[in-house]
Amino acid sequence: MADPGTMLSVVSLTFQVFSGCIQGYQLIADAQHMPSDCQYLRVRLKTEQYRLLDWAHVVQLDEQDDNLLISNSSKGLLLDVLDQQRKLLAQFGRLDDKYKKLTRPLLVDEVETNGVLPDPPAYSPTETSPTIKRVDSDFHNRFPQSEALLKKSLDWARKSKTYPRRLKWAIFDKTKMETLVLKLTSFNDFMREMLNATQLQTLAVKQTRTEFQIMQLNSSVGQLVQIFESAALTMKTQKRGGRFPTNPVHAFLQARGLEDEEENDLPKPGMQNLATLAQIKALNSAIEDPNLFTDEFTTSMKLAHTASEIRSVELCRRDITLLDEESEDGESQRVEAFYQPPKSRKTSVWIEWKTYEPPTFQNSGPDPKIHQRVKALTTLLKENNRTDQFRAPHCLGYFRDIDEESGEDHCRFGLVFEKPASAHPSTRPISLHSLLTEVSETPSLTERIQLATRLSETIERLHAVNWLHKGLRSANILFFSDCGIDGIDFNLPYISGFDYSRPAMNDDMTEKPPENAASDIYRHPRVQGSGNRDSIGGVGGFKKSHDLYALGVILLEIAYWKPIDKILGIEDLNNARPSVTIKVRQRLLDEKEGFLRFVRSYLGNTVEGVVRTCLRGPESFGLSEGADEKSEDIGAELQKMFYERVVRELGDMRV
Fold first, then answer.
1. Residue 461 CB: number of other CB atoms within 10 A?
2. Domain Protein kinase: where (predicted)?
3. How far is CA 575 from CA 44, 331, 438, 622, in A?
4. Is 176 helix (H, G, I), strand (E, B) or coil?
């Protein structure tokens, strides 16, 4: 057996110190008996650990420095920064500045009753799994565990025998823990500034995907509140002129105790994206449950209004003036209108209709569950106005379309959307479907790849917070151009038509989409029409992979620059029978039909592979056909693989 000293000598000093940092994070995060109301600090500690891991991936940090993507002149500084971070973690709560044990330590070694702690499994570089790996700790279940670098670092640190096996809190000091977290944040901020422009862009992409993974692995409202509070810690400190700056040089010096000067010019907090994702997902999960959606919830998530105010999204029908009638070609149910509440200016808007079954003798209005769903959907869309996370148009509210004079119920809700600030009030939305149908000149390959990339990124972000669209089709992809078709920016699409969207964890199947060939042609065969649905129990219902299938159909349309019915040779789509739409997926994947072969010939192997992946579904993402996409493990794996096999493939294309 190799001597431990010999084994350590072949590992670079940079990796040894880095592994010490990772182990330090792990020990404090694993420490037992942290108060429940301070769990957000534990979450923030893990978030900073993953920021460091993401950074290490970008610079290709490994056991040897041969591939380290840091200039030689900066390697000494890097080692110093890592060592300062390692010392900070190693000493915290146990040792003083002279490495002597504190008389009243915050953290002490924990030993099991028999005096032995079992060894965790060693890192295996050949170990592979189709799903995200988890460790035994319930807390660590909330963070991705498939990182080879994480396992490798912890395995090396354990072999070095210089760290305790496990810690527990003897005394918990919230202020000192906050100080530790903010100092670690400063170190990570400083290390970020050591990267060049290309590396910074790569790091931003890597961190975004890590955040999406964290979102998938945290489903309960309580967990999401902790994530939001952990991200808000930096914002709270900055607002009160905290001691921890965001300027990287000051950050490094202050973290080492060499600089006390405060900054005056504070940029936006780096954790804002994670906080916003947690906000939207928590709202998505709680909005239809009055026991969860309370004033206490809105306060904890720093929402601007009370629960009842946020739910108050119904508009008065008399304040809406319709300017034209909806088209009858089945392409959309979208009309122009003005919205002018009392004592307010007139706003140019458009209305998207959502129909419901006519009232029965027992009921005087829509099914209460459907009404509740429309209200919840409108609330989500309206809250998104503040963040613009999902390329969705700004929603002002909804109304029931009842004629005030005759009292006639038109059996539909109208969702009211505001024009983008960049568009003139008279500018009407232009749908992708209308461009595919009416525009004879095909946009450049560059523009089509840009559009495909933006759409896939938007769906990725929606699914990160478990928000399913359920109505994806080219008629619901919108553009705004004051110069007409010639001025369209294909890099700025809006996704509308959220008529049937709902949170992925909700199994309520009361409302089913109507039989409509123009919609069904984009739907997976399992969710077409009102009858051919997955079972209500178990893992049935609409799935993320069904949204991805619809995206695949849209990407095929973009490749051909034709609507899907024209590609398939369906002459009268509005009157097409279900037997026609049910075979669409089979036809698109049939090599004899040659649809994907056309894409490969004219747009290349990458685009063809992306379209095929979306159309095939779970098996293309490494999952079984019947996988429960609502489970955290499967959801995280699908999120990860969709990025790798669709979003990244399109984003890396250079035309």
1. 19
2. 320-655
3. 56, 13, 21, 37
4. helix
| φ, ψ of residue 647 in degrees (nearest 5) | -60, -50
Same domain, 182 and 193: yes
Per the CB < 8 A criterion, the answer to whether 132 and 144 are in contact is yes
The number of folded domains in the chain is 3
**What's the half-sphere exposure (Cβ side, CA atoms, 13 Å) at 529?**
12
Question: Which of 428, 444, 468 delimits the end of a domain?
Answer: 428
- Rounded CA gap, 534 and 546, in Å? 11
* Residue that is last in its domain, among 428, 459, 486: 428
- The pairing of strands 394-402 and 467-468 is unpaired
Domain housing 160 = 4-300
Q: Where is 349: in which H helix or E strand?
A: strand 347-355
Residue-wise pLDDT for 46-92, tens only, equals 999 999 999 999 999 999 988 999 988 889 999 999 999 999 999 99
The DSSP code for 322 is E
More confident site: 258 or 389: 389
pLDDT tens for each residue of 169-211: 999 999 999 999 999 999 999 999 999 999 999 999 999 999 9
- Residues 466 and 634: beta-carbon distance below 8 Å: no
451: alpha, beta or left? (left if phi > 0; alpha if psi -120 to 50): alpha
Asked if 415 and 463 sit in the same domain, the reply is: no
pTM over 0.85: yes
Residue 306 in domain: no
